Amino acid sequence: MVATTPYNVPADPLMGANHLTAVRWVLAGLVALGHIFLLTEAYEPVRIHQWTGGYMAVNGFFVLSGLLIAKSLDLRSDLKVYFASRILRIYPALIVLLLAFLFIFGTMFSKPGGVEAIGSADNWQYVLRVLLLGDPAWAPGGVFADNLEADFNGPLWTIRFEIVAYILAAIGFSIGLLKSRALTLIAFLIVQSAYLGLPFVINFEALPSGMLPLLRLSSAFLMGMCLWQFAEARRPHWILVIVLIGTFLLFGDKFGGELLANLALTGLILRLGLSDRKYKPLLKLPDYSYGIYIWHYPAMQAVLFLHPDFGPAPLALFSIPLFLALSAASWHLIEKPALKLKPSKRADSISV
After folding, report:
1. How many whole angstroms separate alpha carbon 98 and alpha carbon 219?
2. What does the mean pLDDT of the chain come to?
3. Inter-axis angle of helices 20-41 and 257-273, to 10 degrees?
């Protein structure tokens, strides 16, 4: 059974103006807030039970991504256009970030640093590694040496899983699997059950390190794809959302707590992002969320490199204007112009 989303119903906020850009701002902000504390105190206090704000924000990004990618695949039949759009959304800003690593962070915020760092084989290998979707959790060439976290840009780890999700989603739609409401739901239930249950029967430490994160983020992504197939689920009543939040508050520290957290968070995202009421200032927000996500960490690390005694408050004071300015430049000078190169005239919302 093919998705029954009423494409021609103007009342569906997903098909028109909505607040999802504002929601992405909030999710990116939660990730940045968590790192303000992690980079200064090695502990993120913004949490409910063991689930931190940054951790759940990443899950929220993948739920949104699954919804919007399913929308894109279902409304388009050209996979070349689809993949070109995904590449233009991710890679231009990422390439500029990595060039900044080579020519700015690697020379000015490293030990020993200097212009010699530009020719460092380790630095170039790191750039190639990230572009080819390798593990970015590394500090080549002594970048941010002596910081509490000697790491250039750890948050980039999610990008490889996002791209894998794009590829698998395209395959699923091509063979008809993810065009079926029932099969999409079954795929979500299988992956979610595997994520919850397999750690009890398999030693994941003996498997590739990305296996558990892959299951975690794939389950969130498939939850979003289910929301595309089941359009009626995108309009949960506030009472249901409150019940989900209450259930998570009561039982979120037990088995299945992350699933409860994802359901409660998704309910909030849907109610706020796809609200029937439109708030014009939110509708006009530029989409800085991807820029915030990829720039906040190196910006904070640079501030701490210069002021290693900073705590959370001064780090926030100095770094937030910096990474917001970098995010604005990224959107207006790189991301937005790149998106205009998409080989389709049809509007399409893309997630981080």
Report:
1. 29
2. 92
3. 130
